[in-house]
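#dry-run=false #mode=assembly
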Amino acid sequence: MKKATSLVDVARKAKVNISTVSRTINQTGKIGAETQARVRKVMRELGYKPNRVARRLRARDASTHLLGLIIPNIQNPFFADLARGVEDVAYKHNFALLLCNYDEDEKKEQFYLDVMQAESVDGVILPPIHENDPAVMQVVKNGTPVVCVDRILSDSSLDKVEVDNHMGAYKAVEHIIAQGHRRIGFIAGPADSSTGRERLRGGKDALIAARVPIKSELIRFGDFKQESGRLLTHELLTLAEPPTALFVSNGLMTIGALEAIAARGLKIPKQIALVGYDELPLAAVFNPPLTIVKQPAYEVGRCAAELLLKRIADPKHPPTSLKLHPELIVRKSC
Amino acid sequence: MKKATSLVDVARKAKVNISTVSRTINQTGKIGAETQARVRKVMRELGYKPNRVARRLRARDASTHLLGLIIPNIQNPFFADLARGVEDVAYKHNFALLLCNYDEDEKKEQFYLDVMQAESVDGVILPPIHENDPAVMQVVKNGTPVVCVDRILSDSSLDKVEVDNHMGAYKAVEHIIAQGHRRIGFIAGPADSSTGRERLRGGKDALIAARVPIKSELIRFGDFKQESGRLLTHELLTLAEPPTALFVSNGLMTIGALEAIAARGLKIPKQIALVGYDELPLAAVFNPPLTIVKQPAYEVGRCAAELLLKRIADPKHPPTSLKLHPELIVRKSC
DNA sequence: TTTGCGAATGCAAACGTTTGCGTGTAGTTA
DNA sequence: TAACTACACGCAAACGTTTGCATTCGCAAA
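#status=ok
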């Protein structure tokens, strides 16, 4: 790595002190107009680019123009969309993005949180592993702005943007019932995740509202990953009295469920109807097109980033809590 | 942002000089065993975490444990997989990852390349916009290790890992011909991208080898994005004599093609056969399951990251060039 | 002429590391 | 005992910024 041109080089060539250069860059302090012009000229000539590392080291209070995003897995389209939302906002404000996949692994989460602090990022966006995530709490205590997405933290003093999970599941199950189904298989998420629980409750509430009895044998708990969707769907379909419709409460598990259904050669929606969660790249052109609950993933990321930037600018700002609405997209699978 | 515990704090409490602490951390220089033990103990007690920013600032030659990844769009599953491959390797070696989406936009690419340098990352992984990317060249000249993925740079002194595009397209078209098709629509990528050109040539070569005449009206050039796949498929299907099979040369455009086909209510493969490029989340369970050319995206990322780490460790190492093999996955769509 | 004052700029410390060099101590050799 | 050597560790500079505190200068007010 060659040494790049630095403040000193510019200062020397422009015959001023480095502080003058610094101030013209940051528009801080009083600098004469013609001096500024000269400095700028030299900067252009030398192709000077401020060193972000040095800047971060010195001014840990000032903005370092670096954001952290810690997500379970970028291969999940939901998080890919979310990440893209964050990135677009970040770019618009000249922020770079540190991206980390923690795979629901607390060890990895801890590692990456440490990295965030060690890199002294301006702020972090993440879905906490569970409501009482001590590692995240610690970061918050250290004074790093944090905004939670998708899942929430019990500490209510944080900015957060979530999607109304209860509503999403409610709409889905309501729709399934409206199609005439009574035996509805429910592939839920982990019981210890807020999203999993809320979607479960939403589904149950829809059942209750329609006076459809809740059968615990029809409810299975997965881990939001593809394989568990496949396995649990098989389980449900081998029941003595199998469900006529399926509600799968996240995107990856929906793929798994489709695998199981395809393996059994079942026709959708005749033999088994299905409502999924999360929009997937091929869902709209699927055969039959998939009825799903669409979460505004990109919007979540966008809002979160904007909240974070706002908080960085004004740390005292009272915490904002956003709840975005999912949308039931009725196609042909149910 | 509270100030974290630093070397000085540790040094003070352990009654040694900061250099001693630094050396015990990095295992450099000679430090007595019992001193090391004492220092380590204090570090644990204080929960000391080295400041990566300061480390990077000081030791721009030493490893800063930060990698940059600049890709067109993380929402493209191909790049999501690739990114994941990079990330896994990075994590295993305690590197963090700076992720950027440049959207095939030279302005953005330039911005992010500047960020990379300003952050003094250890190295960068990217698919160059086109073969003669001056911005990337500049970074290379500055001494930052760069490895190209997916697409290549004319400068052959770089490490690179690509997928054999010619082979992928060849296999695909060969298979289409083997299924008895003679009128084959080809949705190609941009003519000014190496991947686009190589896939086109691969397809043409398969046609030539089978003595199937090449009709230029059946070849359309897209931009590797979904919308162009949709539009061009419509174009091809409105031809007086439409193709009986389609080869779509990337994942996003395949989705678009499927949109067009669905909009026209055509049956796959009876009315129109299709071979896509890139594995997509629902491709295997699609109805019919999609025949596609699968690129080892994760592997590309993994190899690239390993190459990069190797180069960082040994900058003089002669450049390595990897060419991974795509795989034709025959399912039911052709 | 002196004093005061604001505007423009310079000086130097600080951020938290790494590292070349210097120093002290103990052990070895002549 | 003197001279070396090896080892363990301390000192201080350097990385490229930002920023509080001078300092200089010109000019208006007293």
